Amino acid sequence: MQQSDEALVAEIKCGSQSAMEVLIRRHYKLVFAVVYRKTGNYHLACDLTQDIFIKVAGGIGRYTGDGKFKNWLVTIAYNHCTDYFRSPRSRHQNQETSVPENLPDERMNVIRLLEKDDERQRVKDALMGLPEYQRDAIVLSYYQDMKIKDIANVMQCSDSTVKSRLHQGLKKLRKLLNGGDEHDTTRNHS
Protein backbone atom coordinates (compact mmCIF):
# COMPACT_ATOMS: atom_id res chain seq x y z
CA MET A 1 0.00 0.00 0.00
CA GLN A 2 1.25 3.45 -0.92
CA GLN A 3 2.16 5.77 1.93
CA SER A 4 0.00 8.90 2.16
CA ASP A 5 1.44 12.32 1.43
CA GLU A 6 0.85 13.30 5.04
CA ALA A 7 2.84 10.29 6.31
CA LEU A 8 5.69 11.20 3.98
CA VAL A 9 5.61 14.80 5.22
CA ALA A 10 5.84 13.54 8.81
CA GLU A 11 8.91 11.49 7.86
CA ILE A 12 10.46 14.49 6.10
CA LYS A 13 9.93 16.61 9.21
CA CYS A 14 11.91 13.93 11.09
CA GLY A 15 14.76 14.26 8.57
CA SER A 16 14.02 11.56 5.96
CA GLN A 17 15.57 12.53 2.62
CA SER A 18 14.13 9.45 0.90
CA ALA A 19 10.59 10.48 1.86
CA MET A 20 11.20 13.84 0.15
CA GLU A 21 12.38 12.03 -2.99
CA VAL A 22 9.20 9.91 -3.00
CA LEU A 23 7.04 13.02 -2.62
CA ILE A 24 8.84 14.78 -5.47
CA ARG A 25 8.54 11.76 -7.79
CA ARG A 26 4.87 11.41 -6.91
CA HIS A 27 3.96 15.03 -7.66
CA TYR A 28 6.53 16.17 -10.23
CA LYS A 29 4.22 15.69 -13.23
CA LEU A 30 1.40 17.55 -11.52
CA VAL A 31 3.56 20.58 -10.67
CA PHE A 32 5.24 20.57 -14.07
CA ALA A 33 1.83 20.44 -15.81
CA VAL A 34 0.52 23.40 -13.79
CA VAL A 35 3.65 25.44 -14.53
CA TYR A 36 3.84 24.45 -18.20
CA ARG A 37 0.24 25.35 -18.84
CA LYS A 38 0.72 28.64 -17.01
CA THR A 39 3.94 29.58 -18.85
CA GLY A 40 3.57 27.84 -22.21
CA ASN A 41 7.32 27.22 -22.24
CA TYR A 42 8.81 23.76 -21.69
CA HIS A 43 12.29 24.81 -20.56
CA LEU A 44 11.00 27.56 -18.31
CA ALA A 45 8.53 25.10 -16.78
CA CYS A 46 11.42 22.71 -16.02
CA ASP A 47 13.35 25.50 -14.27
CA LEU A 48 10.37 26.80 -12.31
CA THR A 49 9.30 23.28 -11.29
CA GLN A 50 12.76 22.69 -9.85
CA ASP A 51 12.56 26.04 -8.01
CA ILE A 52 9.15 25.08 -6.63
CA PHE A 53 10.37 21.78 -5.20
CA ILE A 54 13.34 23.56 -3.61
CA LYS A 55 10.83 25.98 -2.05
CA VAL A 56 8.64 23.05 -0.92
CA ALA A 57 11.62 21.25 0.65
CA GLY A 58 12.56 24.40 2.55
CA GLY A 59 9.00 25.12 3.67
CA ILE A 60 7.68 21.63 4.36
CA GLY A 61 7.61 22.44 8.06
CA ARG A 62 4.86 24.99 7.37
CA TYR A 63 2.51 22.33 5.95
CA THR A 64 0.03 21.79 8.77
CA GLY A 65 -1.99 18.96 7.28
CA ASP A 66 -5.07 21.16 6.86
CA GLY A 67 -6.41 20.22 3.44
CA LYS A 68 -4.84 17.98 0.86
CA PHE A 69 -1.07 18.12 0.32
CA LYS A 70 -1.73 18.26 -3.44
CA ASN A 71 -3.69 21.50 -3.06
CA TRP A 72 -0.97 23.01 -0.84
CA LEU A 73 1.60 22.09 -3.50
CA VAL A 74 -0.48 23.52 -6.37
CA THR A 75 -0.93 26.74 -4.37
CA ILE A 76 2.85 27.06 -4.02
CA ALA A 77 3.31 26.37 -7.76
CA TYR A 78 0.62 28.89 -8.68
CA ASN A 79 2.09 31.59 -6.42
CA HIS A 80 5.64 30.90 -7.60
CA CYS A 81 4.58 31.39 -11.23
CA THR A 82 2.77 34.61 -10.31
CA ASP A 83 5.92 35.86 -8.55
CA TYR A 84 8.03 34.87 -11.55
CA PHE A 85 5.85 36.85 -13.97
CA ARG A 86 6.16 39.90 -11.73
CA SER A 87 9.95 39.62 -11.63
CA PRO A 88 12.44 41.30 -13.98
CA ARG A 89 13.75 37.81 -14.85
CA SER A 90 10.52 37.02 -16.73
CA ARG A 91 10.98 39.95 -19.10
CA HIS A 92 14.24 38.47 -20.37
CA GLN A 93 12.91 34.95 -20.89
CA ASN A 94 12.10 33.75 -24.40
CA GLN A 95 8.56 32.29 -24.36
CA GLU A 96 8.77 30.52 -27.73
CA THR A 97 10.36 27.12 -27.02
CA SER A 98 8.07 24.15 -26.50
CA VAL A 99 7.99 20.42 -27.17
CA PRO A 100 5.13 18.11 -28.08
CA GLU A 101 3.21 16.82 -25.08
CA ASN A 102 3.05 13.23 -26.36
CA LEU A 103 5.53 11.24 -28.35
CA PRO A 104 4.01 9.80 -31.53
CA ASP A 105 3.14 6.14 -31.90
CA GLU A 106 5.07 4.79 -34.91
CA ARG A 107 1.88 3.36 -36.41
CA MET A 108 0.02 6.64 -36.15
CA ASN A 109 -0.84 8.39 -39.37
CA VAL A 110 1.61 11.29 -39.87
CA ILE A 111 -1.11 13.61 -41.16
CA ARG A 112 -3.29 12.92 -38.10
CA LEU A 113 -0.30 13.57 -35.83
CA LEU A 114 0.27 16.95 -37.48
CA GLU A 115 -3.43 17.75 -37.14
CA LYS A 116 -3.29 16.91 -33.42
CA ASP A 117 -0.22 19.08 -32.98
CA ASP A 118 -1.92 21.93 -34.82
CA GLU A 119 -5.06 21.57 -32.69
CA ARG A 120 -3.02 21.37 -29.47
CA GLN A 121 -1.14 24.51 -30.51
CA ARG A 122 -4.41 26.31 -31.33
CA VAL A 123 -5.80 25.48 -27.89
CA LYS A 124 -2.54 26.51 -26.22
CA ASP A 125 -2.45 29.80 -28.15
CA ALA A 126 -6.11 30.48 -27.35
CA LEU A 127 -5.52 29.75 -23.65
CA MET A 128 -2.53 32.07 -23.62
CA GLY A 129 -4.79 34.73 -25.18
CA LEU A 130 -7.12 34.73 -22.18
CA PRO A 131 -6.62 36.99 -19.19
CA GLU A 132 -4.40 35.22 -16.66
CA TYR A 133 -7.12 34.84 -14.02
CA GLN A 134 -9.44 33.08 -16.50
CA ARG A 135 -6.64 30.91 -17.93
CA ASP A 136 -5.61 29.83 -14.42
CA ALA A 137 -9.17 28.89 -13.47
CA ILE A 138 -9.56 26.81 -16.65
CA VAL A 139 -6.19 25.08 -16.27
CA LEU A 140 -6.80 24.19 -12.62
CA SER A 141 -10.31 22.95 -13.37
CA TYR A 142 -9.90 21.09 -16.65
CA TYR A 143 -6.26 20.08 -16.70
CA GLN A 144 -5.73 19.49 -12.98
CA ASP A 145 -9.31 18.38 -12.23
CA MET A 146 -9.54 20.53 -9.10
CA LYS A 147 -12.86 21.35 -7.47
CA ILE A 148 -14.23 24.91 -7.41
CA LYS A 149 -13.57 25.21 -3.66
CA ASP A 150 -9.93 24.15 -4.08
CA ILE A 151 -9.40 26.51 -7.01
CA ALA A 152 -10.83 29.34 -4.92
CA ASN A 153 -8.31 28.55 -2.17
CA VAL A 154 -5.41 28.49 -4.62
CA MET A 155 -6.49 31.71 -6.35
CA GLN A 156 -7.53 33.36 -3.07
CA CYS A 157 -11.00 34.31 -4.21
CA SER A 158 -14.60 33.17 -3.67
CA ASP A 159 -16.24 30.11 -5.21
CA SER A 160 -18.60 32.34 -7.21
CA THR A 161 -15.61 34.28 -8.60
CA VAL A 162 -14.05 31.02 -9.81
CA LYS A 163 -17.33 29.97 -11.43
CA SER A 164 -17.58 33.35 -13.14
CA ARG A 165 -13.98 33.15 -14.36
CA LEU A 166 -14.58 29.65 -15.72
CA HIS A 167 -17.79 30.68 -17.46
CA GLN A 168 -16.34 33.84 -19.00
CA GLY A 169 -13.03 32.15 -19.85
CA LEU A 170 -14.72 29.24 -21.61
CA LYS A 171 -16.93 31.63 -23.54
CA LYS A 172 -13.87 33.60 -24.72
CA LEU A 173 -11.98 30.39 -25.45
CA ARG A 174 -14.80 29.13 -27.69
CA LYS A 175 -14.79 32.42 -29.56
CA LEU A 176 -11.02 32.31 -30.00
CA LEU A 177 -11.09 28.71 -31.22
CA ASN A 178 -14.07 28.69 -33.54
CA GLY A 179 -15.91 31.96 -33.62
CA GLY A 180 -18.32 30.95 -30.87
CA ASP A 181 -20.42 27.92 -30.02
CA GLU A 182 -23.85 27.91 -28.49
CA HIS A 183 -23.20 24.79 -26.41
CA ASP A 184 -22.07 25.54 -22.88
CA THR A 185 -19.38 23.09 -21.77
CA THR A 186 -18.83 24.33 -18.23
CA ARG A 187 -18.34 21.70 -15.57
CA ASN A 188 -19.84 21.63 -12.12
CA HIS A 189 -17.11 20.91 -9.54
CA SER A 190 -19.04 22.00 -6.47
UniProtKB/TrEMBL annotation:
<feature type="domain" description="RNA polymerase sigma-70 region 2">
    <location>
        <begin position="23"/>
        <end position="87"/>
    </location>
</feature>
<dbReference type="InterPro" id="IPR036388">
    <property type="entry name" value="WH-like_DNA-bd_sf"/>
</dbReference>
<dbReference type="InterPro" id="IPR013324">
    <property type="entry name" value="RNA_pol_sigma_r3/r4-like"/>
</dbReference>
<dbReference type="GO" id="GO:0006352">
    <property type="term" value="P:DNA-templated transcription initiation"/>
</dbReference>
<dbReference type="Pfam" id="PF08281">
    <property type="entry name" value="Sigma70_r4_2"/>
</dbReference>
<keyword id="KW-0731">Sigma factor</keyword>
<protein>
    <submittedName>
        <fullName>RNA polymerase sigma-70 factor, ECF subfamily</fullName>
    </submittedName>
</protein>
<comment type="similarity">
    <text>Belongs to the sigma-70 factor family. ECF subfamily.</text>
</comment>
<dbReference type="GO" id="GO:0016987">
    <property type="term" value="F:sigma factor activity"/>
</dbReference>
<keyword id="KW-0804">Transcription</keyword>
<dbReference type="InterPro" id="IPR013249">
    <property type="entry name" value="RNA_pol_sigma70_r4_t2"/>
</dbReference>
<dbReference type="InterPro" id="IPR014284">
    <property type="entry name" value="RNA_pol_sigma-70_dom"/>
</dbReference>
<dbReference type="InterPro" id="IPR007627">
    <property type="entry name" value="RNA_pol_sigma70_r2"/>
</dbReference>
<dbReference type="GO" id="GO:0003677">
    <property type="term" value="F:DNA binding"/>
</dbReference>
<dbReference type="InterPro" id="IPR013325">
    <property type="entry name" value="RNA_pol_sigma_r2"/>
</dbReference>
<feature type="domain" description="RNA polymerase sigma factor 70 region 4 type 2">
    <location>
        <begin position="121"/>
        <end position="173"/>
    </location>
</feature>
<keyword id="KW-0238">DNA-binding</keyword>
<dbReference type="InterPro" id="IPR039425">
    <property type="entry name" value="RNA_pol_sigma-70-like"/>
</dbReference>
<keyword id="KW-0805">Transcription regulation</keyword>
<dbReference type="Pfam" id="PF04542">
    <property type="entry name" value="Sigma70_r2"/>
</dbReference>
